[in-house]
From TrEMBL:
Keyword Chloroplast: no
Comp. bias regions, Polar residues: 312-321
Disordered: region residues: 302-321
Annotated source species: Delitschia confertaspora ATCC 74209
Protein name: Uncharacterized protein
Record field: transmembrane: 20-48, 60-83, 89-112, 124-145, 175-198, 210-233, 253-275
Record key words, sorted: Membrane, Transmembrane, Transmembrane helix
Record lineage: Eukaryota, Fungi, Dikarya, Ascomycota, Pezizomycotina
Translocase in keyword set: no
Length: 321
């Protein structure tokens, strides 16, 4: 029996949804998050040693990050669009994948903040995606929190949290409620801090410490979300028996599952083109590098490392410092 959005009749079984919880989809988010954090760590480490700007790693990281944040926003939008038919189990998996997307985006911001500062279009485009991702994550978190607090029947659609009568919460719900609230609050706090970090005009001495500490926190978030998804999903773990998934569709490999993994090859192809010299990108200037190339010669004058938004100029900016 498949869900039809009816909140009065509890289905006997839950239909699988490989589009949001299939093996290929989960692996795509997990692999992209792992590679992005690894590349961010390499870039930050090389920046500490001041040995190279790592242009290849920067390009590859930016490609993975752009792909991850778009797919993260997309899968959250799908979850909200299907809230009248999607059960809390799939909704929670989407929420965990959104955390992986957020961790990937923040790791990229930590490593490539100077690149974003030098181009106001990239900076505000990144800001827009960060805002949309945070907003969707909060909405999903509110649905999850509501379903836990009212002990929603796991085979009913998540949208029924606003229609059915609440039941006494189970004894172990306190930890889940606290954890959900902490994640929602963390999304807001991290968004505020990352916005300030992105638009801060100077490169303070403590920038490297923030990068290292932030990367450690993001590694913990990525590992925690990955472990939770792997253990909970049908594709790799064991979902709760109360969900009663119909069939093993989330473990099957079809074209849609392979496509999500094949898309990971595109950033690698771009990197190969850069290595072969077909595409060139400017070197990174970190720690207020005072040199630039002008007419083929090295000129000793300051490089402008923060490009203000020309639409309203630097005088009216909220982030002068």
């Amino acid at each position: 029996m498949v869900h039809t959005g009816n909140c009065t009749v509890i289905p006997d079984q839950t239909a699988t949804d490989a589009g949001v919880a299939g093996a290929g989809v989960l692996l795509s988010f997990i692999i992209t998050n792992f590679l992005s954090i690894l590349l961010s760590g390499i870039i930050i480490l090389l920046g500490l040693r001041k040995s190279t700007s790592a242009p290849i790693c920067r390009k590859l990281l930016l490609s993975f990050s752009d792909q991850q944040i778009i797919t993260g926003i997309g899968i959250q939008a799908v979850g909200l669009a299907q809230m009248k038919t999607m059960v809390p189990y799939h909704f929670f998996i989407i929420w965990m994948l959104s955390l992986l997307s957020t961790a990937t985006n923040l790791a990229t911001l930590l490593a490539l903040v100077n690149d974003f500062k030098r181009d106001w279009v990239m900076r505000w485009l990144r800001q827009f995606f960060m805002f949309v991702n945070m907003l969707l994550g909060i909405v999903l978190g509110v649905f999850i929190l509501k379903s836990v607090m009212m002990d929603l029947e796991p085979r009913l659609p998540i949208g029924c949290v606003w229609e059915v009568e609440s039941k006494p919460a189970p004894s172990n719900a306190t930890i889940s409620v606290i954890g959900t609230i902490a994640v929602i609050a963390g999304n807001v706090i991290v968004f505020i801090l990352s916005t300030w970090y992105l638009h801060y005009r100077k490169n303070p001495k403590w920038l490297k410490s923030v990068q290292v500490c932030g990367l450690i926190v993001l590694v913990a978030i990525g590992v925690g979300a990955t472990v939770r998804v792997v253990l909970l999903s049908q594709a790799f773990g064991s979902p709760p028996e109360s969900i009663r998934l119909q069939g093993l569709g989330e473990r099957d490999w079809g074209f849609g599952q392979l496509l999500t993994l094949l898309l990971l090859i595109l950033p690698v192809i771009s990197t190969i083109e850069i290595i072969r010299g077909e595409t060139r990108i400017p070197p990174s200037q970190v720690d207020n590098d005072m040199t630039l190339f002008s007419d083929g010669e090295l000129a000793l004058k300051p490089q402008k490392d923060f490009q203000p938004n020309p639409l309203w100029g630097s005088q009216s900016s909220l982030f002068k410092r």
